[in-house]
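Lecture notes, unit on protein representations.

Consider one protein chain, 252 amino acids long.
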Amino acid sequence: MLKIKRVQQIQEYVFEHESVSLDDLGTVFGVSKTTIRRDIRKLIKEGMIQKIYGGVAINHAKLESFNERKTRNPVQKHLIAKTAADYVENGDVIFIDSGTTTLEMIRFLKNKQVTIITNNLDIIVEALPFENLNIISTGGILERDTKSFSSYNKPNSFEKYNFDKVFMASTGVSISNGVTNSSPLESEIKEITVKGTSDVFLLVDHTKFEKYAMVTYCRLEEIDYLITDDLPDESYQNYAKENNIELVVTKE
C-alpha cells in the first residue's frame, strides 16, 4: 500500500474509533510499530489527531464549533441559501443537512408548505415558529460542537424517506477527494441521504473549494446542483459539464 494512501486510511480509522493503540494500528494495517509512528507523526503535525498514552485519538479541540463557522462569510451564505430555497416547492419533502449555510434556508422557506427532515438542532429551533414547516428530526446523540445529531441507531431505516430534494453542507470540496466533512460521526447519515435521492444540492461558498476534511461522504459527481457564490476555476466548470452537474452561481 502506498504511504499516502495508508496515512489517509489511518486517519479515517482513528476518527471512526476515536482512540486506538499503536499495536492495533500495526495489526490492522500490517506494518511495524516504527512505520506507524512515522505515519501518525504527520497526522499529529496537522493537528486533527493527538498523541495519548500508548496510541492516538481525535483532537476534538481542532473541530470548529458551529457558532465559529456561523459568523464566517455571512453575506455569501445568505445568498447561497436564498438561491437554494428557490428550488423548493410547496408540498416538497426535503432534507436539510447540518451546516451554517443550510441553516440560512429556513428564513426563505417560512412561507412555504414543506416537510423538513434534518439532523441539526439550530434548524429545528429556527423552523419552530412556522407551523407550515413540518419538522422531523433524525434523532440520535447531540454533538454540541456541531449542533448536529449523530450515531443514529438505525441508519438504514433512514432510506425509507422519499426525499424530493436534499440540501447538503460540506467542510471542503475537491475533485480528487469529493465532498468531505470534519465529523465522521455525521457522515453515515450524509452518505445514505445522498445515495437515496435524485436531486442533490450542495451549498458551499468559494472558500470551500480545493479543500478537504477527514471523511469523504460522497463523490462530487453524485451532486446534481452545486450552488456557490463565485464561479470556481475552469477545472470545476469542465468537471460539472462532464458529469451533468448544474453549477449555480448566486447573484446579489
